[in-house]
Write a structure and sequence with these properties.
By secondary structure, the chain is mostly helical. It has 4 helices and no strands.
Amino acid sequence: MSLHHSEATHQQLIERVPQATGRDLPEWFQALDAGPGLLRFDERVNWLRDEHGIAHGHATAIVHEHDKRRGARRQG
């Protein structure tokens, strides 16, 4: 599974994560890092949805943003 919405929609979802989920992005990134070590994008999205009860769109945006930032850290 990959990102199915535009970059503009992704940014809007990311901006709404704290209000929609009650947690900031760094908290979600920590949850992903401390989670069950799932490798596939869709597995991590489903884990966030199932384990934390957040909407699919926000879960997808969180995982995508986590991957983007992790990739930027590796290149930097």
